[in-house]
Design brief:
By secondary structure, the protein is of the alpha/beta class. 51% of the residues lie in helices and 17% in strands. The termini are close together.
């Protein structure tokens, strides 16, 4: 059996997240406590008691989701559960995958993710940019449509290729609205603007690239101790230089999640464990390749189910 561990990005957060897991595993709250020392505010209190609106603020969501993924990873390690053949993360989740692989220390990664959230929040004024999800169109059709609709004043780009027939677009709000209308006219089953104020992974994030790249260098990335499947290439980089180069472009590069999952399956992966709140990636994995065991872990119940399932596969 080959196992992959994946980490979700923004959108899976909710008030009270990981509370049940923390009751049984002290390392969860300890992980949040370590992050809080770096951040200068109580992240666990926000995770438990913050409002939906607070948790949706990208400068909060990014450290919150990163730390959540790392807390579940530490539970996995404490229980001496099977090591993965690959790690990967969706969008922001790539930072958790890299940290799990030893590329960054936990405190350095918390700082990077917090900076990323702040830079992204500041890059585009509120109400100017956003994202939308299109269902029922193939990747090439969405990409071509966005290229045709983009103007100097209205950028719209295909940025997240999440599963067959599910693509997220990103850019200026008016251009997104127009793209949703055109997508419906062209047969999209659903086209909806997402509750996201930042045009993630689009060219509008260009102001973030240089300062974040400098911070990545300053963090002193190490060689990966586990194979990391990166979003932009949907494969494992040849060496540390290639890994770092891809990460520096990450904020303005598309997320090729469908291809990433297919790559891992082609390498013999049969089970994917999602570490962090929700089960978004587990659902996507099943849509990409129905032969994969997709196992979300964010509570004692889901943890035990993952343990039992993996044990039965090994038997």
């Amino acid at each position: 059996m080959k196992l992959a561990i994946v980490f979700p990005g923004q959108g899976s957060q909710s008030p009270g997240m990981l509370a049940d897991l923390a009751q049984q595993h002290d390392v969860v709250e300890k992980t949040f406590g370590e992050a809080s020392e770096t951040l200068g505010f109580d992240l666990w209190d926000l995770a438990q008691n913050g409002s939906d609106d607070q948790l949706k603020q990208t400068e909060i969501t990014q450290p919150l989701m990163f730390v959540s993924g790392m807390a579940v990873w530490r539970v996995w390690l404490e229980k001496n559960l099977p090591a993965p053949a690959f790690v990967a993360g969706h969008s922001l989740g790539e930072y958790a995958a890299l940290t799990a692989a030893g590329v960054f220390s936990f405190p350095d990664a918390v700082g990077l993710v917090a900076l990323r959230g702040k830079l992204m929040a500041d890059a585009v004024a509120p109400g100017v940019g956003g994202m939308a999800a299109l269902l029922g169109m193939d990747d090439a059709a969405v990409t071509a449509m966005c290229e045709e609709l983009t103007t100097a004043d209205g950028v719209v780009e295909a940025v997240n290729f999440n599963s067959p027939g599910q693509v997220v677009i990103s850019g200026h709000v008016a251009a997104l609205d127009n793209a949703c209308t055109v997508a419906r006219e062209n047969g999209a089953r659903k086209a909806m603007v997402l509750p996201v104020s930042v045009p993630n992974h689009s060219s509008l994030m260009a102001p973030v690239e240089a300062p974040l790249s400098q911070a990545i260098e300053s963090a002193g990335p190490a060689d990966a101790m586990l194979p990391v499947v990166q979003n932009a290439a949907a494969s494992v980089p040849a060496d540390k230089a290639a890994l770092v180069a891809s990460l520096k472009k990450h904020v303005i590069s598309p997320v090729y999640w469908t291809d990433s999952v297919r790559y891992m399956a082609e390498q013999g992966v049969t089970a994917v464990v999602e570490m962090g709140p929700g089960k978004v990636l587990s659902g996507l994995c099943k849509r990409i390749d129905r032969s994969l065991q997709a196992l979300p872990v964010d509570s004692p119940v889901t943890l035990q189910k993952a343990i039992d399932t993996l044990a039965s596969e090994q038997a």
